[in-house]
Design a protein that fits this description.
It contains 39 helices and two strands. By secondary structure, it is mainly α. Among the domains are: 113 residues, no CATH class; 96 residues, Alpha Horseshoe (Serine Threonine Protein Phosphatase 5, Tetratricopeptide repeat); 149 residues, no CATH class. Helix 6 packs antiparallel against helix 7. The longest helix has 27 residues. The radius of gyration is 42 Å and the shape is flat. The N terminus is likely disordered. InterPro entries: PPR-containing_protein, PPR_rpt, TPR-like_helical_dom_sf. This is Pentatricopeptide repeat protein.
Length: 830
């Protein structure tokens, strides 16, 4: 009986048997296996024709294609076993007999291939036979030209076959050939078939580089097939193991493989269970994966046992000892880690002194070995010499800061800046070249920039103990970074440091005015009793000597406003007056916004009048944006008709003050938000005349031009583009239809006035947008058919109330120049 492995290459539904198989059959006097196919009854035995006896092998080893094709046709002409009433049975090792469903299941069980694969192989064979027959006919019956063409086609055919069966090429140009797992049948083949389909993809490892999708799907299909494969690991070829390892271990640029070590740990265990030997590089990765998965002692023990094999080979010597240094250092065995590092650095192999970093980190984490960690750093710096980079210094600084060795961290930074020429260790006062807020500010800026906020705070505390106060610019940056992190703990730290700076400011004001500094229990001295003089976990609070600035108050004000802490914001403004820091427009805007969010819009407006008129604080664009947001149409979900009517007069007054105030559109944010908020506010309150007047005035003063998107949003509703729902999509479609209809009317009117209808100029396109906006407003007001004189009269009344009559109606150049809000060099808003 031929071995079943031949089914992968030669398993076909034909009557051809190779010469070696015939010799085997004759020598063993073999017959059909009785357990593969048994007749279900005597009737079926009578109806089934006897199987043909194998002929004596007189043909050559490779039959003629015509004979092979004839045999295939004879095989296809035989009656279908299902129609002949033949049943198939299977007997398991225990003796239990099971009836198979049909002949497909029988063929699948007998060949180890599922029906789909067998069909594909048969189709491929048919195409090959047809091609061979066609080429043979061309060579025998054609002339010289036909023979040449047949020879050319035969070469192309062979080239195609070579490309089809070439297989996969890995990143190092290694050939993997055909990747397929066989030997499974029935329901178990389903998961294995999914893995086979993945391995057969042409896109997998295309160009020798796996894609992120390849890495993710490789584990997906393999994990699904693991249970089935574990029943017969020997059916998985060596090439498949190597290919799976190559993909799962890939960590190239642009490929995220966060579970790489976990997957390799499982794959290594499976390969060990299958009896597949791991290569040296794979053994190292498997030991590292075992360590990362939590089996630290076992991994270190396996590493020690591999010293004779992996530790003695030149190609694995460096990787072996570097792995040992990392694992022993993380495990806390600093002595063994140091010995492994010394073995590596004293060898004939090119040393990499950065391998001392894990040892330095492990030693610095223990107070008893901090000095040894510093010696390790000096050794590394000596070995690296000029090749030591800024990133190396940063890592050393981070190690010592994490271990609360701030003095060593500062010395490392000083070494980076002065090449080791200055020593500050053990000195009560820092040297002048180091002990100044400019030098310390550079360090703090670097720490904050890389996100080491805890380290930056430790530096602030340390240098203040050495008589150097950090600059308020760096401390404000630290406070802002803490607040941006979103952590509750960091927010409390930021609050404590900011109020400590405020207390230092209050002390300075008291001393400057000749007043005695109040006691710690004085209410004026302690603006926040819970944070200013309290203790945290038994440790005394750090009392910062750097004084708060207006930026410190602004950072706190914005944070309190965004968090809805209206009471804390009011308290902050009370302390602001005591600190004798002039209120700016930013602080005023934050308090106004907080009043509006706290359902106190009248107090927000009152604060605006008080600050701008009594304290002469100049407003800015955000001030008027906040004022328009205090209107009831922008605050209330259910509109009150009385409040809406009142909003019309109030909004026109806001617009008048906005035009008269001296400010500029200096940011892109206010450039886009303020005109939009004004138009939508007037649209909601149905002040259509004011809306037309505002649009015309903002065109002259702001350089404002409505966009196509803004028009559609106004036609469909303010929130139609924010929430994706069926209702909003319907509103968007209707709004777009409205705007497009108005545009068609405008362009039709242009054609009637003699326009060529060709491409419009930029000025004509802007005029079109303004005309569509005005027509849309008239459509909403139900005044499409109102005489033009009446419309202009209402717009003029609104313009007079809004303080832009000379801008909108009279077009006074001097008035336009005085009220223009565009900053110098700013482009109009389109």
């Amino acid at each position: 009986m031929p071995p079943r492995t031949l089914a992968l290459d030669l398993g076909r539904h034909s009557s051809y048997v190779c010469k070696s198989c015939l010799d085997t059959l004759r020598s063993a006097n073999a017959a059909a296996r009785p357990w593969l196919a048994r007749p279900s009854s005597s009737a079926s035995r009578r109806t089934r024709p006897p199987p043909p006896r194998p002929r004596k092998a007189t043909a050559p080893d490779v039959p003629d294609p015509a004979q092979l094709q004839k045999m295939l046709l004879q095989d296809l002409s035989r009656p279908d076993p299902e129609s002949a009433g033949i049943n198939y049975y299977d007997q398991d090792p225990s003796g239990k007999i099971r009836k198979m469903r049909d002949s497909d299941e029988f063929h699948q069980f007998a060949s180890g291939l599922d029906t789909e694969i067998e069909t594909a192989i048969s189709d491929l064979e048919d195409r090959m036979l047809s091609t061979a027959k066609m080429l043979r006919l061309m060579e025998t019956s054609g002339g010289d030209q036909a023979k040449d063409k047949a020879d050319e086609l035969r070469k192309q055919f062979k080239k195609t076959l070579r490309l089809q069966y070439k297989g996969k090429t890995g990143p190092e140009a290694e050939e993997y050939g055909l990747l397929r797992i066989t030997g499974f049948s029935g329901p178990r083949m389903r998961t294995v078939g999914g893995l086979n389909k993945f391995l057969a993809r042409d896109t997998v490892v295309k160009g020798g580089i796996p894609k992120p999708k390849d890495v993710a799907e490789c584990w997906k299909y393999y994990s699904a097939a693991r249970k089935t494969l574990s029943a017969a690991w020997q059916n998985v070829p060596q090439e498949v193991w190597d290919f799976l390892w190559m993909i799962m271990s890939w960590q190239g640029e642009g490929v995220e493989n966060p579970n790489r070590m976990h997957h390799l740990y499982i794959l290594a265990k499976d390969m060990q269970a299958a009896g597949v030997p791991l290569r040296d590089s794979q053994q190292l990765v498997a030991i590292e994966a075992m360590f990362i998965e939590g089996w630290e002692e076992e991994a270190i023990e396996a590493w020690k046992k591999a010293v004779v094999t992996l530790g003695s080979k030149p190609e694995t010597f460096t990787d072996y000892y570097e792995l040992g240094v990392r694992m022993c250092a993380l495990h806390g065995d600093t002595d063994r880690a140091q010995r492994a590092a010394d073995k590596l650095l004293k060898s004939s192999h090119p040393p990499n002194a950065r391998i001392l970093l894990p040892v330095i980190r492990a030693m610095a984490s223990k107070p008893a070995t901090v000095d040894q960690a510093w010696e390790g750093y000096t050794d590394m710096r000596t070995l690296l010499g000029e090749s030591m980079t800024i990133e190396d210094y940063d890592e050393v600084v981070a190690i010592f800061l994490t271990s609360d060795c701030t003095e060593y961290a500062l010395q490392s930074f000083v070494d980076m800046m002065f090449s080791g020429a200055v020593d500050i260790r053990g000195k009560a006062r820092l040297p002048m070249m180091v002990g100044n807020h400019f030098f310390i500010g550079k360090w703090l800026k670097r720490l904050i920039g890389v996100g080491d906020l805890d380290g930056a705070y430790k530096v602030v505390v340390f240098v203040q103990g050495k008589g150097v106060s950090a600059s308020p610019i760096q401390l404000n940056g630290l406070i802002a970074a803490w607040l941006r992190s979103g952590s509750v703990e960091n927010a409390e730290r930021a609050d404590a440091l900011a109020w400590s700076m405020i207390r230092a400011r209050l002390d300075h004001v008291n001393l400057r005015e000749g007043r005695a500094v109040a006691k710690s229990d004085d209410a004026n001295h302690n603006p926040t009793p819970a944070l200013a003089d309290g203790e945290t976990d038994g440790e005394p609070e750090f009392r910062c000597q750097t004084r708060a600035t207006a930026e410190t108050f602004s950072i706190l004000a914005e944070n309190y406003c965004s968090r809805g802490l209206h009471g804390r914001l009011q308290e902050l403004f009370q302390v602001l007056e005591q600190a004798e820091i002039r209120t700016n427009s930013f602080l005023m805007n934050q308090l106004m916004r907080s009043y509006s969010q706290n359902s106190e819009p009248d107090k927000a407006v009152e604060l605006y009048h008080t600050m701008t008129k009594e304290q002469q604080i100049p407003p800015d664009g955000h001030t008027f944006l906040t004022l328009f947001n205090t209107l009831s149409v922008n605050r209330l979900i259910v509109r009150d008709p009385e409040l809406t009517k009142r909003d019309i007069a109030v909004s026109r007054e806001f617009f008048r003050e906005m035009v008269q105030a001296d400010w500029k559109l200096d940011t892109a944010e206010i450039f886009a938000q303020l005109p939009r908020t004004i138009l939508f506010s007037m649209l909601k309150m149905q002040d259509y005349a004011g809306m037309i007047a505002a649009a015309q005035a903002m065109t002259e003063l702001f350089g404002f031009h409505p966009t196509h998107t803004l028009l559609i949003e106004m036609a469909s509703g303010a929130g139609s583009m924010q929430i994706q729902s069926k209702r909003n999509m319907q509103r968007l479609v209707a709004g777009k239809h409205t705007i497009e209809t108005l545009m068609k009317r405008h362009r039709l009117s242009l054609l009637q006035t003699g326009h060529s209808g060709e491409e419009m100029t930029e000025e004509e396109m802007l005029n079109e947008l303004h005309d569509v906006l005005e027509k849309f407003v008239l459509l909403k007001a139900g005044a499409e058919n109102m005489p033009r004189e009446d419309v202009e009269a209402r717009v003029q009344d609104a313009a007079r109330a809004m303080g832009v009559y000379d801008v909108v109606v009279e077009k006074d150049p001097d008035a336009i120049a005085r009220g223009r809000k565009l900053a110098k060099g700013a482009a109009p808003h389109v």
